[in-house]
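Human:
If only I could read backbone structure tokens as easily as an amino acid sequence. I am handing you a single protein, as its sequence and its fold in token form. I hope you can help me see how the letters and the tokens relate. Thank you; the sequence and its tokens follow:
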Amino acid sequence: MPDSVESSRKPYVSALRTAAASAKRARVVAAASQSLREDGGLAGFSLDSVARAAGVTRLTVYNQFGSRRGLLEAVFDDIATRGRLDTIPQALAMPDPRQGLDAIIERFCAFWSSDEAIGRLHDAMATDAEFAIALTERNERRRKLLQALMKRLLPAEATARRRRDAVDFVYAMTSYAMFRLLGGNRSVDAVAELVKTSCRAVLDDAAAPRPT
């Protein structure tokens, strides 16, 4: 076979393998996500159980994700993408930081309600240390973006304590726990409006000049 034909086949074969691996990875992530939505899914969440549900071997899952934690992170990424958390940078870049904060609050309220697996994951924090660590680290990303936004929201003369208190308050108000607490008899939009009103009041107080 001429060298030129052989070399042209190699990229084609490589592309097929890459596509097949991507499809298999997506199938595993879908199976893992589904297991978290089912009764008893948290207790049985493992590489073995997910491999069986996805119709692949445990070795395949291990090779793709490395560990249960790696699989968890892939599931979190998938849920975040489906919940449109990838729009958060656009909110942070808004010229008016208060509009940006409103957009972030709206997005997180919509996200918390977007997938029943989110609630199950947070419930699992009480009994599964690995879930707890993974979710805590994920939630800290929200704190960091709020810290960045607060630099624009509060005047330069605001004290470090006032900034920290404001971040902590908005962080708590945009959490899943607060969404579930407020959402008992409210719509997602109603919860978002309540959170926005509360956060604005705290920010106004934090930005107000203090007597010298």
In short: The chain has two domains: 3-67, 83-207. Residues 161 and 189 are 31 Å apart (CA to CA). The mean pLDDT is 86.
